[in-house]
Amino acid sequence: MSVRRSIPSNTKLRLFSESGGHCQHPRCLKPLFPVDMGGDRHIAEMAHVIPHGETGPRHEQRPSEEFEADSFENLILLCPTCHTIIDKAPDSYPRSMLLDWKRNHLITLVHSQGIICYEERKQARYAVIAAMGENKAIWKEFAPCDGANFEFDPESETANAWSQRMRSVILPNHYRIQAIISKNQCHLTVEEQEIFAQYQEHVRGLTERHVCCVSGIAIRYPQDMDGIFA
Ligand SMILES: [Zn+2]
Ligand SMILES: [Zn+2]
Fold first, then answer.
1. How far apart are CA 208 and CA 16, in angstroms?
2. What does the pLDDT look like over 62-93, one tens digit per residue?
3. What pLDDT band is residue 163 in, cutting at 50, 70 and 90?
4. What is the C-alpha to C-alpha distance for residues 133 and 136, in angstroms, rounded to an integer?
């Protein structure tokens, strides 16, 4: 099935966020923003679970109720290999299976990454600071130091390198940090819940800008995040 260009950016944004930057096939989970892919593009494909037309993979499973092919509910984010496989063998990959993959994706990903609910706060802290540390290191090395110039020349090499790192490492790390914190919400204080909410909004803005190329308003990284679970 073809990849439509008409997918609304809100839908794209939700798909990318919920994929955590990984193929949603549970036995694949390949990173969709490969570090070693020198270019500035991701390899993610938005696959239609049910196609637009009367033909195409799984078209006979079209639900009888009102149906929007380009909706979030009908799309799944896959690597090109998995997209090809599910479209070539639709009988082996029915709609219900694909929707299950998607529904369970973050749990599957969290398991594959060894994310658990810890007994103690400080264990949760160790888990998040590792990912945070990597982001900080990349930030130091690659972030455009002159914010103003960066704004004026988004085509510059610095801006490209930065965007590439953002998609291949920083955002997946952010999604991972979010997964760890969500899994350990029982250890969050009320203040930390508020900080976490701001942090999620910050990451949403980054995703909007660097993945969906929408220049939305991203709120700043809440500095108090550095002390989460401390
Ligand atoms: Zn397709
Ligand atoms: Zn895949």
1. 9
2. 988 888 999 999 999 999 999 999 999 999 99
3. confident
4. 5
Cα-to-centroid distance, 85 and ligand 1 (Å): 10
Q: Which residues contact 62 (CB under 8 A, 6 or more apart)?
A: 50
The pTM of the whole model exceeds 0.90? no
**Which ligand places an atom closest to the C-alpha of 47?**
1
- Residue 44 CA to ligand 2 center (angstroms) comes to 9
Whether the pLDDT of residue 23 is over 60: the answer is yes
- How far, in Å, is the centroid of ligand 2 from the Cα of 78? 5
Q: Are 32 and 15 a contacting pair, CB within 8 Å?
A: no
Q: Which two tokens stand for residue 50?
A: 């049910």
- The predicted model gives 151-158 an average pLDDT of 63
CA pseudo-torsion sign 11, 14, 16, 22: negative
